[in-house]
Fold this sequence. Notes:
Number of strands: 5
Radius of gyration: 18 Å
Strand content: 5-15%
Amino acid sequence: MLIHVPLPVPTHPHEAAPPSALSETEQTSYDRVLQHFSAVDYTLPNVDQERAALTVDEKFWLSYECLLRYLRATNWNAHAAIKRLEDTLKWRREFGIYDKITPEYLEPEAMNGKGFLFGYDPHGRPAIYVSPSKLSAEESPRTIQFIVWLLERAVDLMGPGVETLALLGDYADNTQNPSFGMVRTVLGHHPNTLPRTSSALRSSHIFPGF
């Protein structure tokens, strides 16, 4: 049996204030979503019966912070959050999050320094470094998979109460943002994970987050 061991969180003090408590309305919405996915007989809708039950990895993905991200993205509409979470659960299977996208498969994408995990920022958020100059205008499917894999690993490194990560873009020799396809993939299935603003290295400006 696969045993999941929580990763250690940063030991340095966080400068950010702890997350504010949920309001009564927000707590009610959260409880409704949690109850929906916690049902003993829960299965993904419109999926073959043999694969309809959630796997252990999928249950771990439905964390407290994950549910909050989707609730914030749907303005605390529990029904909309449940629908969006179920769409993402299906997408994660189709995209190959749990089987196809492995370190070995993605190694060629990482060899030229397109991006890598870069520790934590002062607020305890995992940091991702990306170099747009090493991304082509039309990224290959594996390049997009690599960026999603980096994002997934950053989420794994988030401590309790951390809902977003830090993004650093090195714009040396290139002022081009990632393609629409990549942004759409990240936005659609990782809501409220990327920061509202991201740091641009070797550039004179701060660019908006995805």
